[in-house]
Specification:
Layout lengths: L2 E3 L9 E3 L3 E2 L6 E10 L2 H7 L9 E2 L3 E9 L11 E4 L9 H4 L8 H4 L6 E3 L2 E5 L9 E5 L3 E3 L6 H7 L2 H13 L6 E5 L3 H12 L4 E5 L3 H9 L4 E3 L4 H9 L4 E6 L4 H9 L1 E9 L13 H7 L2 E4 L7 H13 L9 E6 L3 H10 L4 E5 L1
Parallel strand pairs: 5-9, 12-13, 12-15, 13-14, 15-16, 16-17, 18-19
Antiparallel strand pairs: 1-2, 3-8, 4-6, 4-10, 4-19, 6-7, 7-11, 8-9
Length: 358
């Protein structure tokens, strides 16, 4: 089968090969024919080494497809079912799951160290234990989450990561208060989803911050009340909040410099929500006096900060009701053979989400 492979961490191009085999099928596993997958910035971060991932590997973790085969003991899906690939499944038995914090379950991360694919030259890993830039994947049963047949594959793929992450940051982690002021730094697919979440919660002012003009324009269509370049954020803070700072600031870039900017533009007693996935050696510096004196809440948001399965269901319900726009997030479409074109679109900021149709 065909899959896009990164041979070595740090390379900026993927090679689409036709000699890749999905491996690991057996009891408790599900084989999925991938139909659509989104390109998420985390895929780029894994490629350049910001996020740890063994190589060679097949990127992609935001996917949807059709079940073709189920292993012994799998009862929640059957061949022909439409599923979202969940890269962070809950085991249901660990301390985090028992506390109701299923998004913190580490069981899914354990899959990242087991090869998902094989080539004549040796084993190939799948990013985050999945690897959806391939025609077929074999995943643990919990990674295959059934969705109704009226949810198109491209929409289902977005729900698998970016939309769930962004919406959840606003709805679950921050629990944005109606009438509040919000700033979102970084307006790709995840940031736009956070904007939609803040709008759903009734935020009065939503300021979108991004260096790319097309993304700023898109943010206004999705619910932002104004959109500014990074060097205009201080003026927006003065205009919207009389200089006090925003009630909520979402950092959706994953860099300490933007997290520091987010902190500085959050009002005293306000909430900074860290959504972007950054590098282990990129340190955010805060002094102990400001940490005490400002009483700002710093809330990291992992995969939307809530029960993933419930978040999927809620997202589908909101989409069906017309309360959120998912189709509009897909600004570009390419076949698997054009995966490097999709990477360039993300690096340049011209795409909110590129759908790879497989």
């Amino acid at each position: 089968m065909r899959a896009a492979v990164l041979h070595e961490t740090g390379q900026d191009k993927l090679e689409v090969l036709d000699d890749v085999e999905a491996v690991g099928f057996g009891p408790g596993k599900v084989r999925v024919r991938v139909r659509a997958t989104g390109l998420c910035h985390s895929d780029l971060s894994a490629m350049n080494g910001v996020l740890p991932q063994p190589a060679p590997f097949v990127p992609g973790h935001e996917g949807a497809g059709e079940v073709t085969e189920v292993g012994e003991g799998v009862t929640h899906v059957k061949p022909g079912d439409r599923v979202v690939i969940c890269w962070l499944p809950a085991c249901g038995a660990c301390p985090s799951c028992k506390r109701g914090q299923t998004e913190l379950c580490l069981a899914g991360f354990m899959n990242a160290g087991t090869p998902n694919f094989r080539r004549p030259g040796g084993d190939v890993f799948g990013f985050a234990g999945t690897g959806t830039f391939a025609e077929e994947v074999v995943v643990a049963a919990g990674c295959a989450v059934p969705v109704p047949d009226d949810v198109p594959y491209d929409i289902a793929a977005l729900i698998g990561c970016g939309v769930t992450t962004g919406l959840g940051a606003a709805l679950n982690t921050a629990d944005v208060e109606a009438g509040s002021s919000v700033a979102v730094i970084g307006c790709g697919g995840v940031g736009i989803s956070a904007i939609q979440g803040a709008r759903l919660k009734g935020a009065a002012e939503i300021v979108a911050v991004d260096p790319v003009a097309s993304r700023r324009e898109a943010a206004l269509r999705f619910g932002a009340t104004r959109a500014v370049a990074p060097d205009e954020l201080a003026d927006a803070k003065q205009s919207v909040t009389a200089g006090e700072g925003f009630d909520y600031v979402f950092e959706v870039v994953g860099k300490s410099v933007t997290a520091r900017t987010a902190y500085d533009h959050t009002r005293r007693g306000g909430t900074l929500v860290v959504v972007g996935a950054g590098a282990m050696d990129d340190h955010l510096q805060l002094n102990m006096f400001e940490l005490f004196f400002d009483e700002k809440r710093i809330l990291p948001s992992m995969y939307g900060g809530g029960d993933v399965l419930r978040s999927y269901e809620r997202t589908i319900a909101l989409w069906r009701a017309g309360r959120i726009d998912l189709e509009g997030l897909i600004t570009h479409r390419v076949p698997l053979a054009g995966i490097n074109e999709a990477l360039d679109q993300m690096r340049s900021g011209t795409a909110l989400r590129t759908c790879i149709e497989i």
